[in-house]
Specification:
Strand content: 15-25%
Number of helices: 12
Shape: globular
Oligomer: single chain
Radius of gyration: 20 Å
Strand order of the largest sheet: 4-3-5-12-6
Largest sheet: 5 strands, mixed
CATH architecture of the largest domain: 3-Layer(aba) Sandwich
CATH topology of the largest domain: D-Maltodextrin-Binding Protein, domain 2
Structural class: alpha/beta
Mean pLDDT: 83
CATH superfamily of the largest domain: Periplasmic binding protein-like II
Number of strands: 12
């Protein structure tokens, strides 16, 4: 007999991996962190495998968990969409829009701001689908996709914003080096982004390009922490683990809150993030309204740190 998969535990697992935090997952699911941890343990017991490694009161997804979470996210999206469609009366005239964004973009930028849009457009239903890999993004059937690449057959690409990349770190790390920014770049641990294995290629500079641009010399600059998700890299920087070459959109809230501070000049070349929409879209009145709001809201954040 086929065992029934515990759906609440699956939702807890997906939320923890996507958010990079039990606390943030609990907030999203409107439960306590203890409840989320309990659901994770239930799922691990059900599967008879560890999904997270636990170190210093923190948990990190195992390679097996990371390899499969994108399919879990897609499955949950399909369930949510099916349930929504079942409850939608035919005579209702709702405006609806489905969008695809990376998990990091969703949690770090879109979700904290989307309430502004829904407050202005209460009759518009927004279905946010997240992806971890380019393959996942390209298979999602959405009216709008926000991506760091511009090419996908059957889609039109337009620039959403041109972001800057700027070195940032926690105030505690600045204090550790007595406010000497040159010493921070020369000696503090560096945090790297490594997403090639996810099939995500973008033009955002890495530390090698940054160091070369400004003629900086540092032995073993390729050493340090490496993350495939921006949310995890930013969280590490906030804790003082090192210096991150951060994307302006994704670090904007942390900088505004004083959790991260710029420690050097931004990379001089700005890097576009794109909006992709189908060349033959279905009738979607909400698309233009959401696109306009998105551009108006994102562009000030993208250049905030360049001022």
């Amino acid at each position: 007999m086929r065992r029934h998969v515990p759906l609440n535990a699956i939702r807890a697992f997906e939320a923890v991996v996507r958010n990079g935090s039990v606390v943030r997952a609990a907030s999203e699911l409107c439960v306590t962190p203890t409840a989320v941890s309990h659901q994770i343990r239930l799922l691990e017991d059900f599967l008879q495998v560890d999904l997270f490694s636990r170190r210093n009161s923190r948990i990190f997804p195992t390679p097996g968990a990371l390899a499969n979470v994108a399919r879990v996210t897609q499955a949950l999206d399909l369930i949510d969409e099916a349930v929504h469609d079942m409850g939608e009366a035919p005579e209702q005239d709702h405006r609806s829009l489905s969008i695809s964004v990376s998990a990091s973009f969703a949690s770090l930028w879109l979700v904290p701001r989307i309430g502004e849009f829904t407050g202005r457009e209460p009759d518009t239903d927004i279905h946010v689908r997240t992806f971890l890999t380019r393959k996942d993004a390209e298979t999602q059937d959405s009216e709008l996709k926000i991506c760091p690449w511009r090419g996908q057959p059957g889609f039109h690409a337009e620039p959403l914003v041109e972001e800057i990349a700027i070195p940032v770190c926690a105030p505690s790390l600045v204090d550790r080096y007595n406010g000497n920014m040159a010493d921070i770049l020369a000696h503090a641990p560096l945090i790297h982004m490594d997403r090639a294995h996810l099939g995500i290629e973008d033009d955002f500079p890495d530390w090698a390009r940054y160091m070369n641009e400004y003629g900086l010399r540092r032995p073993n600059f390729n050493h340090g922490l490496r993350f495939s998700q921006s949310g995890h890299a930013i969280e590490a920087a906030v804790t003082g683990a090192g210096v991150l070459l951060g994307r302006s959109l994704l670090i904007a809230r942390a900088v505004e809150a004083g959790k991260l501070v710029p420690v050097a000049e931004a990379y001089p070349q700005r890097t576009p993030t794109y909006l992709l929409s189908p060349l033959k879209p279905r009738d979607c009145p909400a698309l233009d309204t959401f696109r306009t709001w998105l551009i108006e809201t994102a562009r000030p954040d993208a250049v905030l740190l360049a001022a």
